[in-house]
Design goal:
By secondary structure, the chain is mainly α. It has one domain. Helices cover 67% and strands 0% of the residues.
């Protein structure tokens, strides 16, 4: 199904003149949020998630594109260590 979806996306995407109208830039964060939210059921998981997100937001203005997301892994690790079992 993946190759078929790519093929259809290529065909249909060529028909769209202005992709900004659809707000596709918000699609990826919305999908990630939908995947993460069901798993946030303990203080430890909340701390890990929000520490990773905070570290990413703080690093974004200072690091090259992509590096803040990689750095978020360190924030998640530190957040988990704060509430180690």
């Amino acid at each position: 199904m993946w190759p078929l979806g790519v093929y259809l996306g290529t065909i249909l995407g060529a028909l769209v003149e202005d992709t900004a109208v659809f707000g596709l830039d918000a699609l990826f964060p919305a999908i990630l949020l939908g995947l993460v939210v069901p798993g946030l059921n303990s203080l430890r998981q909340l701390t890990a998630t929000f520490s990773g997100a905070a570290l990413t937001l703080l690093a974004t203005p200072f690091l090259a594109a992509g590096l803040p997301a990689v750095l978020s892994i360190a924030g998640v690790y530190l957040g988990r260590k704060l509430y180690a079992k």
